[in-house]
Amino acid sequence: MNKAVKEIDVEGHTTLSVIENADRFNRWMYNIISANCSGKILEIGSGIGNISQYFIQDGKDIVLSDLRDNYCDILKKKFNNPVVKLDLVHPDFDTEYASIIGTFDTVFALNVVEHIEDDSKAIANCKKLLKSNGTIVILVPAYQALFNTFDVELEHFRRYTAKSLKVIIEENKFKVKKLFYFNLIGILGWFLSGRILKKKTIPEGQMGIFNKLVPVFKLADYLTFKKFGLSVICVAEK
Predict the structure, then answer these.
(1) How far apart are CA 204 and CA 111, in angstroms?
(2) What does the alpha-carbon distance between residue 238 and residue 39 come to, in Å, rounded to a whole number?
(3) What's residue 7's pLDDT?
(4) Going by C-beta distance under 8 Å and a sequence separation of 6 or more, which residues neighbour residue 149?
(5) The pTM is what?
(6) Can you give the pLDDT at residue 12?
(7) Exposure of 11 by Cβ count < 10 A (0-12 exposed, 13-18 middle, 19+ buried)?
(8) Dist. CA 29–CA 47, nearest whole Å
(9) Are 225 and 154 in contact (CB under 8 A)?
(10) Which of 58, 56, 46, 41 is nearest to 20 (CA)?
């Protein structure tokens, strides 16, 4: 990353802890992501393991990773799977991670790339970690118009559209297989809390309500053909 990374990410940890209890939401995201993952998998930016846990429960061959030591320590205490401290834009990436370059069938990063100023370099380094014909799965926040206090506190550089995400994927010579939006109704909560109420982290009560209503939100995505959403997801092949 091109600016100093906070050693302890208080706002990010708080947000992850709130989302940790949203079991329906996490399972929903897991089901969508895991449908595109196979073989030996690397999760970039595992955080405290909110999505990792489902891959592990289902017996997937997955390696976890994070940039921060405190998250890596949490992951090691929670799970028996391998954990790698990984900086996706390390200045000497090829040497630092020589032991894992070209070793994964799938690399996925959920809500990671928006934290990195040089997002194209991040995607390029994801590609290095993949085997030939490997798959990359990227989820990022959607629509710059939704950028608000949440984004500032979480240190996001930007939000994306399907078109802008596709550009950085294709400029790194990936073949896009799927490109779609996720979580349409989540836009309302993000806008209300982050833009209107100026909250700095996701309110626990709001996330609890959201979690209960996940079946409704899934239906909204289905009925709108995943053409709009709070996040955008790209699945592409090396």
Answers:
(1) 19
(2) 15
(3) 57
(4) 194, 195, 198, 199, 200
(5) 0.93
(6) 63
(7) middle
(8) 15
(9) no
(10) 46
pLDDT on residue 207: 87
Residues 6+ apart with CB under 8 A from 112: 44, 45, 88, 122, 140
What pLDDT score does 198 carry?
77
Kind and range of the H or E element at 217? helix 214-223
**What's the confidence (pLDDT) of residue 150?**
87
Over the chain (238 residues), what is each successive 10-residue block's mean pLDDT?
53 74 94 98 97 98 96 96 98 98 98 97 98 98 94 93 98 98 94 78 81 96 98 98
Are 158 and 221 contacting, i.e. CB atoms less than 8 angstroms apart?
no
Q: What is the pLDDT at residue 1?
A: 43
Give residue 150's identity as a one-letter amino acid code. Answer: F
Pairwise CA distance, residues 190 & 197, whole Å = 10
Q: Which long-range contacts (CB under 8 A, 24 or more apart) does 169-174 make?
A: 169/123, 169/136, 169/138, 169/234, 169/236, 171/120, 172/120, 172/123, 172/124, 172/127, 173/127, 173/238, 174/123, 174/127, 174/136, 174/236, 174/237, 174/238
Please give the torsion angle defined by the CA atoms of residues 204, 66, 61 and 91, in that order, rounded to the nearest 10 degrees: 150
**What's the pLDDT at 2?**
44
93 forms bridges with which residues in the sheet?
none
Tokens for 151?
Answer: 């984004």
> Do residues 183 and 217 touch, judged by C-beta distance below 8 A?
yes
- DSSP 3-state assignment of 131? strand
Q: What was the pLDDT predicted at 76?
A: 98
